[in-house]
């Protein structure tokens, strides 16, 4: 991904506010859940991130905070940034070319991540394989592939979780030619983190992941073809 | 919860009307179901509550009634307050600091409350555990907790139900520091009651509970991970 | 039900057009499915009914036809009334006080009616019991009751189906004091017919039935409480 | 089907843009998925098709390309047509009278097509039988019928897939009197292709197929009537 950074102007803020309204309406950012950021500078790293505890359906222009690479507020305000700011910083640092990061809380992501991370394990994987819609993730050009979405056990300790993310990302090369090794991760019974070169790409990734989560989860509730045949015969 | 009481001005009425339109559109207040109130005074207790039998998608400014702590109309009008007014009064009395109370009828709340209250029992419990979204309930700061939502058997006798609620709330200390002991309850195959210091908080609690009900119910329809593996292998 | 008949003025037509837009958006009247009517006169019986084959999301003022008690066009136009007009006439004749009749095609109604009518049988019954939301059906004042919704096997022969409806309604007294013996019926794998004294009541009945169909169907997909316990234990 | 061809004027383009906004909102054309076309000429065959990789919720008037019967751009622009353009050309060639072709990616179509095509097979069939809503497909006049929707294994090789479509359509007579032999097909874990004499008919076919896919899939998740009885008895 070439480094295309969205400048954190009023335009960025209004675009994030529009995403809040949209994602609330689509059920992915209810209550005061979710947080969003855009990369405001790379040298040094600076992010514009949603302030803590705001209703995402009604973000005002003041509900954003600038933070440095360690999540400290740099704009002189007394607003607190989102509790999960450090994860945004970690992603922006580890994934080159990231221009925007979106974190959402959807029913399907919550349910699947809870179902697929065995209790007591620090992390697991949700494999999404064989769907045409995978091509909506940047750099994927065929359905004959899979996306292994990391699932991390939930915690309120962001330093600890950031460490686990660093550990898991350590073996990944986001600068290699071809598709990125991954496009997002889940926190179990909590939600999705995904990103993109700019806000439009990050928004598309949320939309694609949500579609795929719904398909994977609903497909599991369908009885196998053989069972359907048997059931139809029993009813007749 | 500090006692922040929303004054029952025209603003409150318009806010309740907006909630009616929103909750109808979201499928939580269909037909003439549901009723909403704000606390209009504390000494003596007075509530502003939706009038009986109104379509919640089209509440007019006249579709509200003032009642006293026993649910009697105090504004001299001949409008009848909602049949369940007494439950609003009971909650306002038992939960200190309550400024608004919302009662909704959603599919997931209806289904879960019916599934989890054993027949013949006067009340039961729906445990919601381990979800990040629990933090959307006032005072909850971690997912490593649970909310035990009381389920009461349905009845048309509001005095009797009010008595059961008083009995169940008797051992609870809503004034203790930290999180409230609970944020709402279900009536089986009927709906949800939740509340907040003000209307915005009560509305958020409805939204959060609905999300959690959907997650809990849908998660039950997913086969266990082991069964999924087996099914996938049989299909291949 | 007292005989309150909505006059088939331009107001009625615009109200039916609004219902078409709403029901299309809610997924109950897709394609050119569904048809709606209001009673325009009682002596002799006359109905205003949607013309055949129209997209319900975009009804124009010309997409309505007046018909007599046998479904014949009486307004001198060459418009064809809906193929199912005769069922509207039959209902208007059999259920005294009916002012409006709405026929919709929803997923839940389609699925439940198909699941519950045994193959080869001319009719069956869907019992809906114990839900508070039953009170949204006119005259029902308690959840401690049930609505037995007739299910008729589908046919393209409206005279034959009308005959079966007459046969099933023959033993019912819609003039007895108290609640009506029923508020609607299903045609298997086809859709719902319901009615009301006026269009608002008929619209509410559609909304209430759809809510109840969704609850009944989704409740069946939840494993029994015992199975849930077992599954949770196996996963741990 | 008589040859009614929608002229590819600005009106056609705006109609396709409206469909993009609608289908995105209904969850059938997320991300940059889906593509749409209208037949612009028959002698020689010319199509107006959506350009490659566009967000369907925000199509501009420049996001369309004219192509010939082999999918080559004929309007002198440097815009690339959709990667699946050749399938649109194949359908327009094989199905006489086609005026518009719509390709969508919905959850239910994705799941059902994946469930019903056995692994390793080049194609299969989804049978939809007995539903009244089948009458929404052009030329079908009774529910006592079935639509056998072909399912093709997915590929990124459009020439190869076009060949399989030609093979399967070889035995079908779209010019025979009566209903067409089929109205659309599925690509497994990918999406739906359907068409019509004009854009309105093609749009209706998408809507009808989506309704039917939802009914077929949800009906499979309902336990058989006997199992429901047993479960209810065990709970009591």
Short description:
Chain A has 236 residues and is of the alpha+beta class. Chain A has helices at 10-25, 85-94, 107-116, 158-169, 199-221, 225-235; strands spanning 35-42, 45-50, 64-68, 100-104, 123-129, 146-152, 184-187, 191-196.
Write the layout of secondary structure elements.
Four copies of one chain form a homotetramer.
Chain A: H1 10-25, E1 35-42, E2 45-50, E3 64-68, H2 85-94, E4 100-104, H3 107-116, E5 123-129, E6 146-152, H4 158-169, E7 184-187, E8 191-196, H5 199-221, H6 225-235
Parallel strand pairs in A: 6-7
Antiparallel strand pairs in A: 1-2, 1-4, 2-3, 4-8, 5-6, 7-8
Helix pairs in contact in A: 2-4, 3-5
Secondary-structure class of chain A: alpha+beta
Query: How much strand of chain A?
Result: 15-25%
The general outline of chain A is globular
Q: Provide the gyration radius of chain A in Å.
A: 19 Å
N-end to C-end Cα span of chain A: 57 Å
Oligomerization category of the chains in this entry: homotetramer
Count of individual helical segments of chain A: 6
The main pleated sheet of chain A reads as: 8 strands, mixed
Strand order of the largest sheet of chain A: 3-2-1-4-8-7-6-5
The overall pLDDT average of chain A reads 91
Largest interface: A-B, 27 and 27 residues
Total number of beta strands of chain A: 8
Keywords:
homotetramer, 35% helix, eight-stranded mixed sheet, globular, 236 residues, alpha+beta, disordered N terminus
């Amino acid at each position: 991904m070439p480094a295309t950074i969205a400048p954190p102007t009023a335009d960025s803020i209004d675009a994030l506010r529009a995403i809040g309204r949209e994602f609330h309406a689509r059920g992915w950012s209810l209550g005061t859940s979710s947080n969003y950021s855009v990369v405001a500078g790379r040298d040094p790293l600076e992010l514009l991130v949603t302030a803590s505890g705001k209703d995402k359906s009604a973000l005002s222009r003041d509900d954003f905070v600038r933070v440095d690479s360690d999540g400290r507020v740099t704009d002189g305000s007394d607003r607190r940034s989102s509790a999960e700011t450090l994860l945004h910083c970690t992603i922006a640092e580890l994934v080159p070319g990231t221009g925007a990061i979106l974190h959402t809380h959807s029913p399907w992501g919550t349910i699947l991540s809870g179902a697929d991370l065995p209790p007591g394990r620090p992390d697991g994987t949700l494999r999404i394989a064989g769907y045409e819609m995978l091509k909506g993730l940047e750099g994927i050009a065929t359905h004959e592939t899979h996306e292994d979405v990391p699932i991390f056990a939930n915690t309120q300790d962001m330093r600890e979780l950031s460490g686990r993310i660093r550990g898991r990302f350590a073996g990944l090369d986001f600068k290699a030619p071809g598709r990125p090794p991954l496009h997002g991760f889940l926190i179990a019974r909590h939600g999705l983190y995904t990103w993109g070169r700019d806000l439009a790409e990050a928004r598309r990734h949320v939309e694609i992941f949500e579609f795929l989560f719904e398909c994977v989860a609903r497909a599991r509730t369908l009885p196998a073809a053989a069972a359907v045949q048997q059931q139809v015969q029993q009813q007749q």
